[in-house]
Every structure is written in C-alpha cells, then in structure tokens.
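This part of the workshop introduces the protein records we will be handling. Backbone structure tokens are a discrete shorthand for how the chain folds in space. Once this layout is familiar, the rest of the handout is easier to follow. The record below serves as our worked example for the rest of this section.
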Amino acid sequence: MHKLRVSFTLFLLLACFLPLPLLAGQHYVFVGTTFPYILEEGENKQPKGVGVTLLQEISRLTGDVFDIRILPWTRALSLIKRGEVSGLIGPYFSKARQQYLEYAPYPFYEDRMVFVSRSLETVDWNGDFDALKRYNILSIKNWYYGPDFEKARSKLTIYDTISTEGALDMLLHHRADVVALNERNARHLIKRKGMSTVVHINSPHIAINHGYLAYAKNRGEDALHQRMNEALETLYINGEIKRINARFGLSFEQD
C-alpha cells in the first residue's frame, strides 16, 4: 500500500458537482505550506482555506483539476524551482522569485507584517529600523517582509528560523527580543497558545504583503496559466475573492 501523504485531490470533491465534460480536465499539482486560514489541514487531513476554495472556483470555471499538497515551505520552493510541480499557493511577491515564478496578475489575500515582542518589555519601534539595532530579531526563513525590511537586514541582528510557533517559544525564553511575523499568523498562534498576556504585537506594521498563486516558469504550461489568469480576473472583478476571504474571517481590499 502506498504511504499516505498530506495531500488532497480536488478531483474527488469536485466530481460530485462538475458536469462530465469538465471532469476530463488535466490534473496539476499545486503546493504550499501551512498558513492559517490560507492553506491548512482540516478534517481527515484534507486541506482547507482561502487558497483551496479559490482553486475550487478556478476548477469550476476552467475544468482543470488541482492536486493540493501541504509541504514544508523550503520543500515547496525547491519543487517549483525544479519544475516538478505546476504551481505554488500563497507566496508573497518578490523580484528575486520572479526568476523561477510567474505570478498570477491578481492577489488573493493580504498580510500585515509585524514585530512581536514580550509584553513587559518596550521595543523602540516607530517605523525606523535604526531603532532596532540593539535587538536580536527572529525572522522566518524564506519569508519576504517587504523592501524596507530587506534593505535594513545588513545593519540589523537577524536570525532565521523555520517555525512560527518555535519563534514565539524562543521569544518567551529570551532567546530573541523581537519576532517578525505576519499579523494573521501571530494572532492565530497567540490565541491557540494562550499567549495574549505575555506577548505583544507592535505598531506600526512593517509592510503589507499580498499573497498570490504562482506558476513554475519552466514547465511549458502557458495555456494553463492563461486559463487560470482569466478565471482569476473573473473572480476578482465580481468580488468572489473578497467573499472567499470573508468566509474565513479575513479582510481583502480590492483596488
């Protein structure tokens, strides 16, 4: 018997609702990592979230079938760099990643990037990165925090870690002074771990990032990209992407 993996083929779900002609659509693998409300395991280890619901809607419009797999973020990036999968769910836009990613023309969620610190200790953060020079800062490996943060990296003491939950634990154990997260993840973890009295989300935010669907550039799937982009345009213009976000308790501002 094949070893079970954390994946979910939308074909099984959509087969109950799609007309037979659409069931002939090709299967494409899209990967991502656990991101609360965007992509995470639901009941029976089936992925759920804004990204999953969005791909269901795209499938309804195009007839394509998407196999969604939840992996460690570094692993997901490695697969799409090598062209072993068709797409990536939820990356923030960055110029560096454009070398191997073709971003969809419309985002499907937004994140405020923030600094989290211990509640009883004041952090001198007012938007000026020079004020953070005396602090040990934890950031999440392969996350993008906006151009101002990236420009300031060389003059700050920043250590990378791979786990958002582990980063908050390190903060509590005084192994760092500040953790850089997105507000969505931060609030989710603070609530789940009962940390509301011991950690604090600082203002102002570092940046506002938008999350996208992105495609592997080296697979020759231009026709798929065109179909998906046309479907995304429809869902963006008619407000469906905003409504999907609202179902998961998230706000999404359209231009």
About this structure: The two ends are 49 Å apart (CA to CA). Residues 36 and 185 are 6 Å apart (CA to CA).
